[in-house]
Each structure stands twice: as C-alpha cells, then as structure tokens.
Amino acid sequence: xxxxxxHTIDLLVSDIEETIVAQKELMAELHLPRYLRVGDKVTLTxxxxxxxxxxxxxxxTWHLLDAETxxxxxxxxFPFSLLTGADTTYYIPVEVNAxxxxxxxxxxxxxxxxxDGERRILPxxxxxxxxTTTQAFQLSGLQAKRIDLQTVFPKKAENKLLTxxxxxxxxxxx
Length: 174
What we know:
The protein is mainly beta and 174 residues long. It has strands spanning 2-7, 13-18, 26-31, 36-37, 41-50, 56-66, 72-82, 87-95, 102-111, 114-125.
C-alpha cells in the first residue's frame, strides 16, 4: 500500500492511496530458519513459483557457502518445468559442523525468460551452553559449611569456573 500526502505553503492539501504489487513472473524463494546450531542435521527448503501466463523451464541452483570466506560448501542443481500458476518445493539436507560460524545460502532459478534468486545469511550457534548455578547459604559465628562441587558442575562440563562471592549483607546481591 502506497500512501502519499502533499501540502502547499497556503495549506492546500492532497493525498493519494494506491496498492502496489512487486513480483516477478518467476520467483525463487528460500524458506530458512533464523539460525542453525552445531550438530544439526536439517532439511532446508526452497521453492520456485511461476505466476506468468506461460510455462517456464530451466535450472535451479542451490549453494551453501561459508559466509566469511565465500567458499562453496555444497551445490545442488535441479531442472524444473513449471506450468502457469504452478510452484514446486525442493528439500536440501544440510549437516552443520563447528567449522563455520556463519553460512550463506544462495538460491537461483533461471529460465529462458529470466531469472530470480535470493541470498540469505544463517548464523551457526554453538552447541555448548553456559550454565550458571548459584547456591546461597548463611554462616554465622564460627560455623562451617561443606559444599559438594559435584552437584554444582554438570557431569560433562568443560571449562569449569568457580566464583565465590561473600558479603556480610546478603541483600546487596538481591
């Protein structure tokens, strides 16, 4: 929807309102998640849509790249033939490893009448999660308290870090 408003110095006004459609006769679209996580085995999808009045035939190309180096990691080519008003979806398997922190997906459909494409960036999140465990206790006078650290750290924890905070006024930490 396009809306416009204009006025002159002597306060004469006018407005316009139109509906605008931005589309191509052959459209290539990616359907991706917002991010991937290391270790994921996912099936990503991409589609091609023909909204023209004629049949489109051609080749669709899928590239998975390392977004930082532009090195191509995976390529697929799919021939297609779409009748008027038809669309088709492609399913591409992807395994995510820790070597890449940012991936780029490039999808392009080319036919005799033109082409369309999309490129999107996918962040790759770590499969590790920082866990913060707190254990509050009170001591008064000459009391002693024994804490089993095996309950503080998860069994498979790496890079363990222990921080102890002491205060005479516990409300300061609230």
